[in-house]
Design a protein that fits this description.
Number of strands: 2
Structural class: mainly alpha
């Protein structure tokens, strides 16, 4: 990873691509270190819970052959897809995951701009794997392997790959879409290694030439202070819950989709996409007046 980052840095510098910003990269390194410490501290709990759950498994593999590892990979990848969807569609989880999306750059160090508190709840989404007979250490190992795959797709330096590969696997093109703040790209391409789950469940979006990706959030943090970056959405949640008018809608403001508001003052990604489907009709009268219907 370090070698690839160095090569991308050198390419960005000599080709004058401006793929990196010093403050942004420092935030990425701080977030990955913070995430690593949380993950390390909570690893014992994760392994304990997964091991406990495996005692109730209703499937038992006699050997760990090719079938076992292929099934574990597929199960791991779809479990991540579900986790990732929860991170995007439930504001409580989005408040943690938003850190990963907050960079307005897209380079290999953004891959390690980790959701620092995710280790505290991630294991919940992998409990079904233990119930299906996969061993705790194997689940943790396969998660790490899939994360390694997810590293290389965080780049602008690779265009579209052969069609067969783009159809099955997550590629840089797919993941650029995922990090886009354009309405058409919001909450799309959730897969880590395989893009087939997005194709199956309706969350796939092709990268469009006519719609260049704008990286970051719909409302960007505009800070290289890691504390502000990590707690950006939590601060907004607290503000919403303190508001007397909003407090009676507390559950929706905490567990509803990001952007939900009781009075329409903010919009969810679904609402923003619906607005794209309205076709304005412009009628020009005397070359001076323009009436627009939606």
């Amino acid at each position: 990873m370090v070698i690839l980052i160095v090569f991308e840095l050198l390419y960005s510098h000599y080709a004058k691509k401006e793929l990196y910003a010093t403050g942004d990269t420092i935030v990425n390194l701080i977030c990955t270190s913070w995430n690593f410490l949380n993950d390390l501290l909570f690893r014992v709990v994760t392994l304990f819970v997964l091991t406990w759950a495996s005692t109730y498994s209703f499937i038992h593999f006699e050997t760990k052959g090719v079938v076992y590892w292929v099934l574990l990979f597929l199960a791991e990848d779809i479990a991540y897809y579900v986790l990732h969807c929860a991170d995007h569609y439930i504001r409580f989880f989005w408040a943690t995951h938003i850190t990963h999306h907050s960079s307005e750059k897209f380079n290999l160090t953004v891959a390690i701009r980790s959701s620092v508190f995710q280790p505290f709840y991630r294991f919940i989404f992998y409990l079904p794997l233990a119930l299906f007979g996969f061993e705790a250490l194997d689940i943790v190992f396969m998660y790490a392997a899939c994360q390694v795959y997810g590293f290389w797709v965080h780049t602008e330096t690779i265009g579209k790959l052969p069609a067969w590969f783009e159809y099955i696997f997550v590629t840089p093109s797919h993941h650029r879409v995922h990090h886009g703040s354009n309405a058409i790209y919001l909450d799309k391409n959730m897969g880590m290694a395989l893009i087939i789950w997005d194709r199956l469940f309706g969350t796939f979006q092709e990268e469009l030439k006519e719609e260049p990706v704008r990286f970051g959030l719909t409302t960007n943090v505009k800070s290289y202070n890691p504390i502000k970056v990590v707690f950006f959405e939590w601060k907004q949640i607290i503000s919403d819950l303190k508001d007397a008018e909003k407090r009676k809608y507390a559950f929706k403001y905490l567990f509803g989709p990001p952007g939900w508001s009781h009075n329409g003052s903010r919009k969810t990604s679904t609402q923003l996409r619906k607005e794209l489907n309205t076709t304005p009709i412009c009628i020009i009268e005397n070359e001076a007046e323009c009436a627009v219907e939606a």
